C-alpha cells in the first residue's frame, strides 16, 4: 500500500473567485512515508480545500480523513476500445 510523505497545497484562484474565500487543491505527489501534516494555511480562517485521489489510494484517503476531510463524491470513469 502506498504511503504519503509530502502534502502539496496549491491555491485555486478561479474557484476562490466564485466561492469568495481562499481555496486550495490538496494532492500527494510522492508516496514514501506518512509523516507530513497539512500546512497551517488549511487550519487558519475560512478556507475551502478539495482533493481528488484514486479510490485505491487507501493511504491517501486515510490521510485526508485524518486531516478532517470527508468523502462527498466518488466518480467512476468507463472506457471502451474503439475497433
If you compute it from the alpha carbons, what radius of gyration comes out, rounded to the nearest whole angstrom? 15 Å
- What structural class do the secondary elements suggest? alpha+beta
Strand content: 15-25%
Secondary structure tally: strands: 3
- Identify the strand order in the major beta sheet: 1-2-3
How many angstroms separate the termini?
Answer: 35 Å
Helix/strand order: EHEEH
| Major sheet characteristics | 3 strands, mixed
Helical amount: 10-25%
The poorly predicted ranges are: 1-5
Q: How would the global form be characterised?
A: globular
Average pLDDT taken over every residue? 79
Q: What is the count of helical runs?
A: 2
Tell me about this structure.
- It is a single chain.
- With 83 residues, the chain is of the alpha+beta class.
- It has two helices and three strands.
- Strands 1-2-3 form a three-stranded mixed β-sheet.
- The longest helix is centred in the C-terminal third of the chain and has 9 residues, at 58-66.
- Residues 1-5 have low confidence and may be disordered.
List keywords for this structure.
83 residues, three-stranded mixed sheet, 2 helices, 19% helix, globular, alpha+beta
Short description:
By secondary structure, this protein is α+β, with helices and mostly antiparallel strands. The chain contains two helices and three strands, in the order βαββα.
Amino acid at each position: 500500500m502506498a504511503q504519503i510523505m509530502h502534502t502539496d497545497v496549491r491555491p485555486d484562484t478561479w474557484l476562490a473567485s466564485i466561492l469568495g474565500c481562499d481555496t486550495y487543491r490538496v494532492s500527494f505527489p510522492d508516496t514514501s512515508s506518512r509523516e507530513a501534516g497539512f500546512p497551517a494555511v488549511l487550519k487558519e480562517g475560512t478556507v475551502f480545500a478539495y482533493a481528488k485521489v484514486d479510490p485505491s489510494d487507501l493511504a491517501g484517503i486515510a490521510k485526508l480523513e485524518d486531516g478532517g476531510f470527508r468523502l462527498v463524491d466518488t466518480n467512476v470513469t468507463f472506457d471502451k476500445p474503439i475497433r
